[in-house]
Amino acid sequence: MDIAVIISTFERPSHLARCLASLEAQEGVDGRFEVVVTDDGSRDDTLRLVSTTARRVDFPLTFTTHDHDGFRLARCRNEGVAASSAPYLLFTDGDCLLPRDHLRLHLAARRRSVVVGGDCVRLDEPTSKAIDIDAICTGRFERAVPRAERRRILAKAIRARAYEQLGLRMRPRLSGNNIALWRHDYEAVNGFDERFVGWGLEDRDLQCRLERIGLRVRTILFQTAPIHLWHPPAPSFARNGIGTRNLHYYASLDQRPTFCVDGLVKPFELEPGGMLPTSRLDRRRAA
User: Fold this and answer.
1) pLDDT digits over 154-169, tens only?
2) Do residues 3 and 32 lie in contact, with contact meaning Cβ atoms separated by under 8 Å?
3) CB atoms within 10 A of CB 234
4) Can you give the pTM of this predicted structure?
């Protein structure tokens, strides 16, 4: 496998079914990708959906979960990485549909010391409900994106390219529904910080730590962007994290360690002195 697609989800099986259908429809990447659905403790039909889909599709499909205790997206993503094996990682969400060339374009964009990222285009509620499996299999769903959203993403791509040329720190911004990077770079910072609980800022923290070890962020918005299906906002949603515990925690990390304390590898797994044996991560992947 060349790339592992890590899909986070929680109690939206209808959205997830369509997300997985968009992966079945990927072109030019047969035999090159694996998928991990990493769940935040759903108590509905999510597991049954993934199990049924896994028996039908021609790519490896794995499922991880844990007890639900608040919105723990960082933990989901780390568990998804631990359950995968490919050397390149692509993060997205179970409420996103991937254009048919999305994986191929991300694979073509791979570069050393580079994190590739972008954003998604967003659909309203009526348009989202109208997209069925047939529309995904035939690619018709891509025509559902409003012109205003296409213009917004194009403008964002232009700004992102300018930020790249200026070499600005923390620009362009990473968004968790469209991040791709090498596994060894993800492991070098210990993945997402699981002390972010509730909506927001875990991806911004990851970007900060990746930049501190010398990685650059490059946009893929000129080539591709997931299509986000409408749903009500998460109960813990707050724009830019204003007034949240996550914002307070993020702001407190002035001396942010590049290797977060509670991430892909947990504190109790570290050796005395905080050292991490390489074999420990190897064993996690093998599991």
Assistant:
1) 999 999 999 999 999 9
2) yes
3) 13
4) 0.91
Q: Are strands 96-97 and 179-182 parallel, antiparallel or unpaired?
A: unpaired
185-231 pLDDT, tens digit per residue, is: 999 999 999 999 988 899 999 999 999 999 999 999 999 999 999 99
* Residue boundaries of the structural domains of the chain: 3-286
CATH architecture of 3-286: Alpha-Beta Complex (3.90)
